[in-house]
């Protein structure tokens, strides 16, 4: 029996109808079955592609990408995922104001969607804005579809907002699942999601929030660690606590990197900006207060600099399980002695984990493709089986 | 009988051979049959797509887009149209001088066209330049094809020049046809194409010119209204007059928005720059006279500001037929109280017409696709029938 | 027998297995059989396309392009080649430092390649850097593929480096082959690859190097001519000498344009920067020495200006074989009296050769496609035969 057939049999037992024609904002909106379905479909698409079997769902159609921040990794992941399914990417290059008016979004949303099957949006710069933008955009498409403006309702893949970064956290988790030999082996695994020093400032909170909001659902013992003042959104911590309770795992918060790393199976040390500061920044941008923004930046860099000891050094790694925890990062990392003088991780640590780090990243195109697949294909089980049975070659010669 | 079959039967009665391998510059170059053929094919392609039937003509091939102005709507419409037919868009991002030398255009034209099936050009900034650029470009391709440099002669879709904006006016008219229940119901309908105040300056004339040059061909009574000094090109007015005579409609010009709106079935209030000022601007750009350009801009804004009463207010709308004329705009509009303090239209009027406005825009991708289809497909009737009969799915699962 | 079948029979006799899954850096890495195979496949793909037969190898897949310099011609050639074979182009728009760190390249290379089949890189700005960048990039992909990060190892097409410009020189040679009626007619033909004056500075050396490194392999008598101080890389001259010896041709260097043009069958007059100056420039960029760069630029322009007599004038052309040598240029040229006051070539000469010049350029998309084809298709002979036999239409209607 092929790997794809095994995965399809697993998929068959999961309830996934809720995903059809639906958007993907946050992992905590989705049921356990739905998340598992994404993993199964991602692995199946990868297996088919490795065996040179075409996984095109579409003969033509567009995937619209909107990157309100710079991006290389996610941009190429989205482009790859769309191409894998037969969609052409058309990028909306907004050079307009960062905090757009509701009405303008409503118009733009409809204007780019006449033949769009998927919308991928990255908007993580502004606390309280990123998700709102995505929601406003998709609500406009609901209206456009209902009123007969659009022939189809494109579905959303959240490519990062101010709250969650689901394509990242899901790719991360699939990497963990494969590293530990299956989702059934995750129970009790200790995860340290920790802040780390970086010479830059203002990195989004969506990664730590995405990780604690997702990893707590699989019975793992998740520790969030950061210096005082680097709090994440309290409502996401609430979600993490509830998840942990439901899954038989644990969630705790500490203010010491050492404590978080102690005995950890998995470590994810990464810089982010304090939530409160990001709220202030949003208000300063709204007010167009450039002086205030510069002042805030200075303060944040000074504040960061007080915590240079929060770094994933060789010493720190020794505290982890057998000194060999799985080191994770969403990339690119600030690497001490390579890309900066003092950063998130020692060069020697980073270098030792390069292969697993790149593998971690390699899941993102498939996760995105699986999200699109499950929102577009009515009967995903039948579709995977037909793809395999028909065996159309991706490369014909 | 399917909608597509009905449209195909209509298409069968029209003489369209002249469109095969031909360019689309201006609507007034085309016969009535040819314009109707575009509407029929646009509706048929839309019907097929709505029924999930693939409308790919091409297995591979390129659509080259050249946007010498910013664009979102037309860019996505062109990308959608190409994708619908199986062409990949390759964008030529010119960052060279606005007014290019003939020789350079000749070279560029050939260099980007080795595997191009379609060329879409937008060049509306400079009076007396936009059309000339397109013509020079396509003449170079004629030469390239004749001399064996190119294996195929790509055909042009004018995505807006200084004279006409045919993909806009054709999409607008298809919207009107559907709103009034068929082309046969247009006779005698009163259309007000009027200038409106906007806080910006220098908007192209190709929209009003495109509208009066096209709408007069269907027996409608078209009124062009603008303050003194906002004349459009006189030769286009001549075309409008002749069209009206031939179609049994009417064309007149007035200098009062109120008069134009009186009893109108359709209103299209929109800002544009005076033709004479645009000629001056072209000369100033040619001379590289920055001071002169700034001075002209100031004068134009001051001139505009004298006509703030030219706005599509609720009061103005009450003058129209039953107070319920179809309000049209090519978007984006300058909306009083939303995007600016005083603009082309009251927010309450605009908001009431949002659904028809977005529907109006939704025809553009299909109009462009139909233009490409009719210039590339030798037997469009047979092609549509085969597409429907074969019924290849656009989305396979 | 079709042209494609004839070409396929020629291909059948060539040893090409070394090209499968291999990169294309430099023509001198490749055997004579391999170069001939590229010409045969390029001509076959062109023949099939001219007969409306689809040459898609891929049902989906990405071609990644990285242009570290501006480019129009090569960009469209790469896009055309990818599209012809069924690959979608995804462009990596690097706005980072020119001289990147090894580690960063390693990461970028893997991150963009998860679903990439081909990588096209242009990096010709910096002597000793361009090739190094490509090599570092591809070594990283070797590692990525070996370690299971990538499912496939994308292959490289060098779209120009500091050393060679193989897609240019191969397209140039295919043009020469067709102009002279076959590769067997090249023996003894006199080629003048000469420097020419241009009002700009710093043009890459990869074109003259590519030409002397390739044209010497076919028994031609190649003369490199330039003023003192405009030396090319000595190791490439060594390659040219060895090639000439092996092929029964000749290679010599002179310091007079007149001498080089005397009796030439083919002339290729083109500006380039002195190798030594380019080395200095690389060092200045590395040191971030802006003042030094400006100073060097001034010196080079002054040095150029001493050689305004190195121009392809009508008088110069009279010296060539019957006054009718084949004039070649990679385009765009600096044309005296058209694009500049004094440049590489007289307008009257350039204009007389426009058709052959554009034809010369028209081979590049097919050369690139052939390079991709031979590195991706295991049995190219069988593939071409199946393409022709199946006869799937590129344009279906």
Which CATH architecture of the largest domain in chain A would you pick?
3-Layer(aba) Sandwich
Oligomer: homotrimer
Largest protein interface?
A: A-B, 37 and 36 residues
Number of domains of chain A: 2
Describe the biggest sheet of chain A? Answer: 5 strands, parallel
Topology of chain A as a string of helices (H) and strands (E): HHEHEHEHEHEHEHEHEHHHEEEHHHH
Secondary structure tally: strands of chain A: 11
Name the CATH class of the largest domain in chain A. Alpha Beta
Number of helices of chain A: 16
Helical content band of chain A: 40-55%
Main-sheet strand order of chain A equals 7-6-5-8-9
- Kindly report the CATH topology of the largest domain in chain A: Rossmann fold
Kindly report how far apart the N and C termini of chain A lie.
26 Å
Helical/strand content category of chain A? alpha/beta
Low-confidence stretches of chain A: 96-102
**The CATH superfamily title of the largest domain in chain A:** Aspartate/ornithine carbamoyltransferase
Q: What is the overall silhouette of chain A?
A: globular
Q: How would you state the average pLDDT of chain A, rounded?
A: 94
Strand content of chain A: 5-15%
What's the gyration radius of chain A in Å? 21 Å
Explain what this protein looks like in three dimensions.
Three copies of one chain form a homotrimer. With 397 residues, chain A is an alpha/beta fold. The first copy, chain A, has two domains: 3-163 and 363-390, 3-Layer(aba) Sandwich (Rossmann fold); 168-361, 3-Layer(aba) Sandwich (Rossmann fold), CATH 3.40.50.1370. Helix content of chain A is 47%, strand content 12%. Chain A has 16 helices and eleven strands. Chain A has helices at 3-12, 32-50, 73-85, 102-111, 130-146, 166-179, 206-215, 234-247, 257-261, 275-287, 290-305, 314-318, 347-352, 354-362, 364-376, 380-390, and strands at 62-67, 88-92, 116-122, 155-158, 190-195, 221-225, 250-254, 266-270, 326-327, 335-336, 345-346. In chain A, α1 (3-12) runs antiparallel to α2 (32-50) and α6 (166-179) crosses α15. Chains in contact: A-B, A-C, B-C. At the A-C interface, α2, α3 and α14 of A face β2, α4 and α16 of C.
